[in-house]
Design brief:
Layout: H1 2-34, H2 42-50, E1 56-57, E2 63-65, E3 76-82, H3 84-87, E4 90-97, E5 104-110, E6 119-125, E7 131-139, E8 144-151, H4 165-171, E9 175-180, E10 187-194, E11 217-224, E12 227-234, E13 243-249, E14 256-262, E15 267-272
Parallel strand pairs: 1-8
Antiparallel strand pairs: 2-3, 3-6, 4-5, 4-7, 5-12, 6-13, 7-8, 9-10, 10-13, 11-12, 11-14, 14-15
Length: 277
């Protein structure tokens, strides 16, 4: 009994320290957010991501929709559009949040089934402090073209998880794939929702008081009838239970197949077929 009391007594200060650390982290996010526009970290971040390559602001090549002030920092909606005149020459898209702990949110590589009409990606992200958010496309000839929005939000990466750890992990990988209405330019739209807690490593377990180890979806592959629509490589800045709405090319067979893998090496698959197929 004595040893049990000693262990419990020793755990209490550790929990208190963890809670204090979390409080300081959240306070730092709000304090830093208030001065986010005073510090430009983009030049260093650009060099880390692209080396000496130039990145040019060009909203005729890519557009980004994001709220100026987010209602929920852990669920900030973003919509990226690549116009039809550019779509055929764009091979990849990076979403970047300058001041997040992991600034590269997601890296999309497009395949032939992405189509040549207007291309669209819509998803939800975490924003940890007031920051510029960027959508950067790379063309087949190596140009890097960008759209930027400033978003006021704080604390998204450390926001408490919606469910307890065991329940969230038990549901991880459950998918909902929808085939949506087609567009006039021969493009279709699909929607993918995947259950996953997307632990950032900055969240506290509300029961134990300890930080939850980072666990998140590392890769998502989407194919239409065996041809790639996109491959996404992601990190902790993608929101809990990721949701991605996307465009893809119409075809004789519009079956969508999805394969995802998380940082624990677990793989998840899903499939959706058109009605009547």
């Amino acid at each position: 009994m004595a040893s049990t009391r000693t262990a419990a007594q020793g755990a209490a200060p550790l929990r208190a320290l963890a809670l204090l650390a979390a409080g300081l982290l959240i306070a730092a996010c709000f304090w830093s957010g208030a001065r986010a526009d005073e510090e430009d970290i983009w030049p260093a971040l650009r060099a880390d991501l692209f080396g000496e390559r130039a990145v040019t602001e060009d909203t005729t090549a890519v557009s980004l929709e994001a709220p100026y002030r987010a209602e929920d920092a852990a669920l900030v909606p973003l919509t990226v559009r690549i116009p039809a005149q550019m779509a055929g020459s764009v091979k990849s898209l990076k979403l970047v949040i300058d001041k997040n702990p992991a600034p590269l949110v997601a890296d999309f590589t497009f395949g032939p089934a992405a189509g040549a009409g207007e291309r669209m990606i819509e998803t939800r992200v975490r924003v940890d402090m007031y920051s510029n958010v960027r959508a950067i496309v790379e063309t087949n000839d190596g140009r890097l073209l960008m759209a930027t929005k400033f978003v006021k939000a704080a604390g998204g990466c450390s926001a408490p998880a919606l469910k307890d750890t065991d329940a969230a992990l038990a549901e991880a990988g459950k998918m909902q794939i929808k085939l949506l209405a087609g567009a006039s330019d021969g493009q279709r739209e699909g929607e993918l929702k995947i259950r996953h807690p997307q632990y950032s490593g900055l969240q506290l377990n509300q029961v134990t008081g300890y930080y939850i180890p980072a666990k998140f979806l590392r890769v998502i592959d989407v194919e239409r009838a065996g041809e790639r629509v996109f491959r996404m490589e992601g990190g902790i800045s993608l929101s809990e239970n990721p949701s991605i709405r996307f465009s893809y090319a119409a075809g004789a067979d519009e079956t969508l197949e999805v394969k995802a893998e998380d940082t624990d090496g677990r793989t998840f698959t899903g499939r959706a077929t058109p009605k009547g197929a």
